[in-house]
Write a sequence for this structure.
């Protein structure tokens, strides 16, 4: 049941109606049943994966909870213990909890790695041999990476005693499977989501209207912009398109991936909002960033936050790293002191690359990001000197230049996503330096990409609209700002948007509607 | 202030719905100047009822039999419920629907439909989808339409929206905004009549040049689905106390093999049905392949269809006992009007043809 299908709209409509009509006490149960129904339609066989993650997470949490509980009771009974004895006992409990944590993490990540590996043809072939093990060819279960990361994050938080242990298995099942975020995130933190996921909600017209508006905007981005430009992106991937044609691909893919991914997130957040549930934002106007590090604080925010919390920080503040920092500082100065950060960054970006898939191009993508961030960090003193010396670099015009520079740089990296053949990718990138075929803009090439003049006009209007909305977002929620304009005008805008989706959306017979790009992860 | 919110919301919803249905009406293909076959199903409901004979099938019925000629020569009232590449299950559901409006004495089914067992039978999925739309889009909503849609959808249709594409055709035709023409506005809420009681007139002449090759096939057996729906049609006719007659229209292509003939004959014999293969009676009918076809023998033109109607009308009168209704004053007035329209159409098309 794709987000952009009529079935999804009907499913969501029925669910919202039941959610508010039936007793509020059972709202979370309705969501749980609805989420499993939703997942069932994605493929009944994939339910096994969801259940596996849910059950192992639950068992891990339950065991840790019981151990912590009995430890507290034990220490109460042995109040006469000395500080050292208490510390030793707590360390023993923690070590036992760590063992539980590691077992659950290993089981789940092994499953994730296995599923990702099975998507890579040579690995699948070698694993499968001559047999016909059907589960090897299942493909990646929908949203596996997302719900697994969310569950594992929660498990780690429980271990760290930063989140309350949920002992109701069904509530945990809802946290793991909440359907709007099941497809492509956002990845929520338990402590944030629990505030609204398990509480009772009365029907709030304004809130439901806001949710529907957010969904509509998501549909516009996905169906009118992303799916339309996807046709040209597929065409431009061809080996004959080098030089400036490749640059056009970079720009088109930047538009596609943003409209696709953020559109999907808008739908997810919008659906949750209609139910009174708050999901975290995943995009904070990323194309307005001025450097790569900032970009990654604003793009796929929840994944990057996860990586930071559970991979980067634990690595950089680990004892071996702190020791390394001390020693390296003496020999290498500032660079040496920052060595753990660079190692942490490298490992985090490697993990992020692998999260996207077991392919070389994803790893290259991660390493390129890491490389640019580390270089930028190292050059920071130089930048500061530059800004101090040249006044123009502190003006708005220079900000615009930085934004454009970042847009090109980051999307030159992002476009690796399209090239499993890394050699081909670099060949195309280098072609920018010697193939100056600007004539592709007017020699008819653009009309051979599967788009006609009307398509380009729609895309242009759509992109301008996305840009304007992003500009407005700097002042806060666009929907709240819209509340200030006359109601009639507001309704006209929404009706126009609705019919733009219906008329100009790339969907239905004759269209090869693409799945959300992030579904594959 | 608060009280004014709900009326505004209701008005907005109503305006949105009105706009939705307006755009839907605008974007649906009208089939008035091209592929007129797409307008035939809708047209039936205008003058439904009062027919003694109902023809059911594909282009081999709506191009090969002229109801007006049957009226003129035998006083038989008849209607054709056919559409392009109409699959046998579509014929069945259309027939069941037709019984809501008619109490016919005879139902005539053209057996070419027995060759197509699944929506995939005619090959290209987009072509089949286009044919599905022409048959199903304008059928009135009922359980029968839903059943017909479910039986007809191609794999792509099922994957991309399924029945919702039929419930809200705008989901299917939304991208026609780029092809909107004057015709779409002109026929926004009405259609011209394109047939004469279901008969789609063609006046062109394109003689048969060569004999169609009889290429040996791997399998000549009719599919189970075809037999299933043929049985259903037969039983439906029995339930409505009406004769079920099988015919093979005189079209040269697709080639009608002896093996097909044997199966139909065997079925007709088993169920005591009348079966006429007009390909075996071309001389008696008087078909001249130099003058009576507009597409080299695939279909008859109006001159051939009139000959065919003249020949078959005799059979319907004599062998099936269909009454001559020319004594009925009301019916005569109605059919005289139909005849006039028919003759005007014929004259107009012939004049246009001559101008070419």
């Amino acid at each position: 049941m794709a987000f952009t299908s009529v079935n999804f709209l009907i499913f969501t409509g029925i669910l919202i109606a039941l959610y508010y009509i039936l007793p509020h006490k059972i709202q979370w149960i309705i969501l749980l049943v609805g989420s499993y129904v939703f997942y069932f339609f994605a493929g009944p066989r994939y339910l096994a994966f969801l259940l596996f993650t849910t059950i192992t997470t639950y068992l891990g949490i339950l065991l840790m909870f019981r151990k912590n509980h009995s430890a507290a009771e034990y220490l109460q009974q042995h109040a006469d213990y000395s500080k050292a004895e208490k510390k030793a006992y707590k360390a023993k409990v923690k070590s036992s909890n760590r063992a539980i944590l590691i077992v659950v993490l290993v089981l789940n990540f092994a499953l994730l790695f296995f599923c990702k590996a099975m998507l890579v043809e040579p690995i699948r072939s070698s694993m499968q041999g001559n047999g016909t093990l059907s589960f090897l060819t299942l493909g990646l279960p929908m949203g596996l990476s997302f719900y697994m990361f969310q569950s594992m994050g929660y498990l780690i938080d429980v271990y760290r005693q930063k989140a309350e242990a949920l002992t109701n298995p069904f509530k945990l099942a809802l946290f793991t499977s909440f359907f709007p975020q099941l497809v492509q995130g956002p990845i929520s933190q338990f402590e944030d989501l629990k505030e609204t996921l398990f509480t009772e909600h009365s029907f709030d017209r304004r809130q439901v209207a806001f949710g529907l508006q957010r969904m509509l905007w998501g549909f516009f981005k996905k169906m009118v912009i992303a799916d339309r430009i996807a046709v040209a992106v597929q065409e431009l991937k061809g080996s004959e398109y080098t030089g400036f044609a490749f640059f056009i691909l970079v720009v088109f893919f930047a538009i596609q991936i943003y409209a696709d991914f953020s559109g999907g997130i808008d739908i997810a957040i919008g659906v949750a909002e209609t139910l009174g549930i708050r999901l975290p934002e995943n995009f904070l106007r990323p194309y307005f960033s001025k450097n790569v590090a900032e970009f990654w604080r604003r793009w796929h925010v929840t994944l990057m936050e996860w990586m930071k919390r559970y991979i980067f920080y634990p690595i950089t503040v680990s004892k071996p790293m702190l020791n390394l920092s001390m020693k390296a500082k003496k020999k290498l100065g500032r660079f040496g002191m920052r060595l753990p950060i660079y190692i942490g960054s490298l490992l985090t970006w490697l993990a992020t690359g692998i999260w996207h898939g077991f392919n070389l191009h994803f790893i290259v993508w991660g390493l390129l990001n890491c490389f640019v961030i580390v270089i930028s960090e190292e050059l920071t003193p130089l930048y500061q000197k530059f800004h101090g010396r040249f006044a123009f670099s502190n003006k708005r015009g220079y900000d615009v230049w930085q934004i454009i520079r970042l847009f090109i740089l980051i999307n030159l990296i992002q476009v690796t996503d399209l090239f499993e053949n890394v050699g081909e990718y670099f060949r195309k990138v280098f072609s920018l330096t010697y193939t100056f075929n600007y004539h592709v803009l007017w020699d008819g090439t653009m009309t051979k990409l599967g788009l006609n003049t009307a398509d380009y006009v729609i895309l242009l209007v759509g992109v301008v609209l996305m840009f304007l909305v992003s500009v407005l977002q700097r002042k806060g929620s666009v929907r709240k700002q819209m509340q200030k304009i006359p109601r009639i005008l507001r309704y006209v805008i929404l009706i126009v948007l609705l019919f733009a989706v219906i008329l100009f959306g790339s969907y239905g017979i004759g269209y090869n509607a693409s799945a959300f790009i992030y579904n594959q992860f | 202030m608060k009280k004014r919110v709900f009326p505004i919301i209701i008005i907005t919803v109503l305006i949105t719905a009105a706009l939705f249905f307006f755009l839907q009406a605008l974007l649906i293909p009208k089939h008035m100047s091209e592929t007129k076959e797409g307008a035939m199903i809708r047209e039936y409901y205008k003058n439904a009822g009062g027919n003694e004979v109902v023809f059911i099938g594909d282009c081999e019925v709506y191009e090969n039999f002229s109801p007006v000629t049957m009226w003129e020569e035998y006083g038989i009232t008849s209607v054709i419920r056919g559409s392009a590449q109409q699959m046998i299950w579509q014929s069945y559901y259309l027939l069941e629907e037709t019984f809501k409006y008619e109490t016919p004495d005879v139902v005539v089914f053209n057996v070419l439909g027995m060759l197509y067992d699944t929506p995939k039978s005619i090959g290209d999925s987009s072509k089949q989808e286009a044919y599905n739309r022409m048959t199903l889009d304008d059928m009135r909503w009922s359980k029968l339409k839903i059943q017909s849609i479910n039986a007809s959808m191609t794999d792509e249709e099922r994957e991309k929206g399924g029945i919702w594409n039929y419930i809200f055709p705008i989901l299917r035709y939304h991208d026609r905004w780029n092809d909107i023409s004057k015709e779409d506005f002109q026929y926004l809420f009405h259609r011209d009549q394109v047939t004469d009681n279901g008969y789609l007139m063609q006046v062109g002449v394109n003689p048969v040049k060569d004999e169609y090759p009889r290429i040996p096939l791997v399998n000549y057996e009719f599919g189970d689905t075809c037999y299933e729906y043929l049985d259903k049609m037969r039983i439906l006719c029995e339930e409505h106390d009406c004769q079920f007659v099988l015919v093979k229209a005189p079209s040269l292509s697709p080639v009608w093999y002896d093996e097909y003939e044997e199966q139909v004959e065997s079925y007709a014999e088993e169920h005591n049905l009348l079966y006429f293969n007009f390909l075996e009676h071309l001389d008696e009918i008087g078909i001249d392949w130099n003058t009576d076809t507009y597409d080299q023998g695939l279909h008859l033109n109006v001159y051939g269809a009139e000959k065919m109607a003249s020949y078959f009308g005799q059979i319907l009168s004599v062998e099936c006992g269909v009454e001559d209704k020319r004594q009925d004053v009301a019916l005569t007035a109605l059919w005289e009007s139909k005849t006039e329209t028919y003759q005007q159409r014929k004259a107009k098309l012939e004049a246009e043809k001559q101008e070419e």
In short: The CA atoms of residues 285 and 311 of chain B lie 6 Å apart. Residues 34-355 of chain B form a domain with the Rossmann fold fold (CATH 3.40.50.1110). Chain B touches chain A through 23 residues (CB under 8 Å). The mean pLDDT of chain B is 93.
